[in-house]
Structure formats: C-alpha cells, structure tokens
C-alpha cells in the first residue's frame, strides 16, 4: 500500500479489523468435563477461522461450589478444607483426562492457583463478605480458562491466555462491578487487539473484572455473557456467538415446560424484553452494548454447532411467538405507611432507594392507595437487611414461596391454563405482556 496516503491505510486497517474479529462465549455447561472441553476445541477449530476472543465461564457448577467455600470461610459454616479438596479433585480429574503427560506445565499452573487459594483462606477475613466473595469466586474462571487454553495449545490450536482483569475495569461494587467503559475500551484496544492480531486466538475469562487497586470484582452471576458483549463492543467485533446446551433462545425454559419452541430471530428489543422479565438464556446486560454498535448475537448449540440457532439483530422481524418466563422462589412484599397515609411520591422514593441500596431487583410492582406491592427474588442475603430497613419506615407484610409468571404475546386460554390451581396474588397486563404473581393453592 505504498502509494496510498496514510489515512487510507488506516481506514483500510480499521475496516479490516471491523470485518473480521469475533467473540465466542462458552458457559459452564460447555466445559463441565473432559469431553466437553474436547468439543470446545473442535468448535474453535471449525468456526474460529478469523481472529477470535474466546470467553469462558467456570467449569460446570464450580461457581456454586466456590460460593459454598466463601460461606465456609466467612461464616465458618461447613468445612473449608473439604470443599477445597472437592474443587481440586474435580479440576485435576479433568486435567488427567486431557493431558496424558503428567509433566505438562498446566499441572503446576493449576496447583499454583490452589496454593494461592489456600493462602488466602488461611488469613482471617478482613474485608466485607462481598469483597472476599469476588477474590475467591473469580478463581473458577481463572482455572477453566487456563485449562481450556492449555488444552487448545496442546492440540495445536495456538492461542494466548489473557487475564480479563487487565481489561475489564470496574468500580469497587463487589459482586456487581460497574464497568468503566472508557478505561476498559482503551485497555482492550491497547492490549487485546494487538494480542489478537498476533495470535489470532485469545482465551480469557467471563464474569470477572479488576479495580484500580488491583482487586478482583465480579459482574453478577451468569455475567460471562455480559463480558463477551463488552469485549465485542470494545473491539468492534463483527459478531458474538454464545454456545449453549440448548438449540437457541427457546420460548420457555425446558426445565419447567414441555414442547418448547426455538425462536429463530429476535430484535434487540425483543431480547431485552425477554431477559428483562427473567428469561435466563442470556444475561440481561448483554444486549445493550451489542445493540449500541449493531453487533449481531447468535445463540447456538455446542452439541449441534452447524445448526442455525437464534440470531438477535436489528432488522429481524419482531417476535410473535408466545413465550413463558417463570421465576420461582419469589417474595411478594406489601408495604404500607405506618400512619395509614397514602402511598405517595415521597414514600415511593424512600422505597426505591432502599431496594437500590440492597441491590434487590424489582420484578413486578403495583400500587394502591395505601399499599405498594413488590415482587423480588427471595435471596436472604438481600431480603433480610432490606426488610429490617423497610420496617423502620413502613409496615411490611410478605408472602414467600410465590412464583412469577410472565407471558409474552399472551392469549386468554394460555393465561387460564397456567393459572389453574393457583392463587393469583397480583396480576398485570399490557398489550403484549401478562404477569401474575401466584401461589399454589394447596
Ligand atoms: N461462572 C459464573 C456463574 O456461574 C459466570 C457465568 O457462568 O456466566 O455465575
Ligand atoms: Mg456458570
């Protein structure tokens, strides 16, 4: 390109980079055992023909186990040693089946992660629960990304392992790190893009970030999808593929419904609505960064990688498939002023501030003259302090063990069928969405 002015060369390089980079995300189920890791390798071989960032989650149910570990450590509930041994066993069993050479460097690498974990656990907790949670729970992603990277390299799929904490920068809201877009974007352009150009394949972690004081944060459970979207946004990727154990976005969770249907196309708007109401197929924060740069998101099956899956992008026709989103283990709070005054703006603002203070997400709300009802997850970590605080200002009644059913594109027969034998505590409908907070009638 000798005869071209520099701006043209830059434009060419910029357009090239925009055209070719992509981001893959593999969740816990896709790396849960040795065969799954082998399958990831074959997908990468087949589908990562252009510079690709691979974002991985912790293996199988590792994050839940690490949560148990944090509780054992912080609250002295359960045995730290036992849980740690289980985690170590699980990862080394996978290693043994992936690397027949017992001297492979990965064995030491993984051993070192556990040694550091032991050191951290030997000290008494000196920070908040959430702070310790993030330092410990984040190790699940470190372990899995190291194993996947080493396995790919051993199979001749050359790649570079990168620590996501050097790119995704957050504030210090532990367990719900707020991402600094500017700084993270700059770091992605400085560190990630050159690595990608050099190695073609970069393996990194979902779910975790770093603070300016070099502590680790996490982005909220199931946050790896969000990491993949952020990275795609920062590097102007041409697409994101989330590889899952389902054929795509389904119209209901197969855990609760038979005869689920795959939805072929969704707009970003449809996808935001579905995830907002709690469809667990994609993390709710994933869509916005992609929509802002018009980056298509594909949700595909890692078991049938050649099949089309679901495509989320603008220009798709809107989704008219009836979809069901079911949330269990909800609590319905009914909040009333102690003096029987009306629920008015001032009360509402106190209530919202308290929900925000304890990071309790409101799934549905309804108000009447003297009471305000809110449905939220019954997570004792959040609900107990929230209730105590609310009770300082209000009289609070609550119903536990309730379920929230959201039906998109509903019709009366479906609503009737799904509420059969249930007591409906509150109900709300708009043009496309019908929601019910229900309890079993027995
Ligand atoms: N491993 C984390 C979790 O299970 C993040 C993720 O899977 O997306 O919540
Ligand atoms: Mg996971």
If you had to describe this structure to a student in words, what would you say it looks like?
There is one protein chain. This protein folds into 2 domains: 19-244, 3-Layer(aba) Sandwich (Carbamate kinase); 323-440, 2-Layer Sandwich (VC0802-like), CATH 3.30.2130.10. The strands form 3 sheets. Strands 3-4-2-1-7-9-10-8 form an 8-stranded mixed sheet. Strands 12-13-11-14-16-15 form a 6-stranded antiparallel sheet. The protein contains 14 helices and 16 strands. Helices cover 42% and strands 22% of the residues. It starts with 5 loop residues before the first helix and ends with a strand. The mean pLDDT is 93. Helix 3 (62-75) packs antiparallel against helix 4. The protein has helices spanning 6-20, 34-47, 62-75, 80-98, 105-122, 129-137, 139-154, 181-199, 224-235, 268-276, 287-292, 345-357, 380-393, 412-418, and strands at 22-26, 52-56, 160-161, 201-205, 208-210, 216-218, 239-244, 265-266, 297-301, 310-312, 323-337, 362-367, 372-377, 394-408, 422-429, 433-440. The chain has 442 residues and is α/β, with parallel strands linked by helices. The radius of gyration is 24 Å and the shape is globular. Strand 12 (362-367) and strand 13 form a beta hairpin. The site of aspartic acid has 12 residues, from loops.
């Amino acid at each position: 390109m000798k005869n071209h002015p520099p701006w043209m060369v830059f434009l060419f390089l910029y357009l090239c980079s925009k055209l070719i980079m992509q981001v893959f995300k593999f969740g816990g189920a896709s790396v849960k055992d040795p065969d799954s890791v082998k399958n990831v390798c074959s997908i990468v071989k087949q589908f990562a023909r252009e510079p690709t960032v691979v974002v991985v989650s912790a293996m199988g149910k590792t994050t839940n186990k690490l949560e148990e570990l944090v509780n054992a450590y912080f609250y002295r509930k359960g045995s730290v040693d036992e849980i740690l041994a289980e985690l170590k066993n699980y990862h080394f069993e996978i290693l043994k089946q992936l690397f027949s050479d017992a001297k492979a460097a990965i064995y030491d690498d993984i051993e070192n992660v556990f040694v550091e974990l032991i050191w951290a656990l030997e000290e008494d907790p000196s920070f908040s629960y959430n702070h310790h949670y993030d330092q410990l729970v984040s190790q699940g992603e470190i372990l899995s990304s190291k194993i996947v990277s080493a396995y790919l390299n051993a199979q001749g799929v050359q790649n570079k392992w990168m620590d996501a904490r050097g790119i995704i920068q957050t504030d210090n809201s532990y367990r719900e790190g707020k991402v600094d877009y500017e700084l993270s974007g700059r770091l992605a352009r400085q560190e990630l893009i050159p690595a990608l150009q050099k190695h073609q394949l970069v393996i990194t972690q979902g779910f975790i970030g770093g603070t300016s004081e070099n502590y680790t944060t996490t982005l909220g459970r199931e946050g790896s999808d969000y990491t993949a979207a952020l990275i795609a946004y920062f590097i102007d990727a041409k697409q994101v593929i989330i590889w899952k154990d389902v054929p795509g976005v389904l119209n209901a969770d197969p855990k609760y419904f038979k005869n689920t249907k795959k939805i072929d196309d969704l707009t970003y708007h449809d996808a935001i609505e579905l995830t907002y109401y709690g469809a667990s197929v994609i993390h709710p924060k994933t869509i916005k960064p992609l929509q802002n740069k018009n980056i298509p998101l594909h949700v595909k099956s890692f078991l049938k990688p050649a099949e089309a899956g679901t495509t989320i992008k603008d220009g798709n026709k809107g989704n008219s498939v009836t979809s069901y989103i079911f949330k269990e283990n909800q609590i319905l709070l009914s909040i009333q002023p102690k003096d029987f005054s009306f629920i008015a703006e001032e009360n509402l603002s106190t209530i919202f501030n308290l929900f925000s203070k304890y990071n309790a997400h409101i799934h549905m709300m309804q108000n009447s003259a003297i009471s305000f009802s809110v449905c939220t997850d019954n997570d004792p970590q959040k609900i107990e302090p929230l209730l105590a605080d609310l009770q300082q200002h209000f009289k609070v009644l609550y119903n536990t063990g309730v379920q929230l059913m959201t039906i998109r594109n509903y019709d009366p027969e479906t609503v009737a069928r799904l509420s059969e034998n249930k007591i409906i505590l509150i109900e709300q409908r708009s043009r496309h969405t019908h929601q019910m907070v229900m309890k079993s009638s027995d």
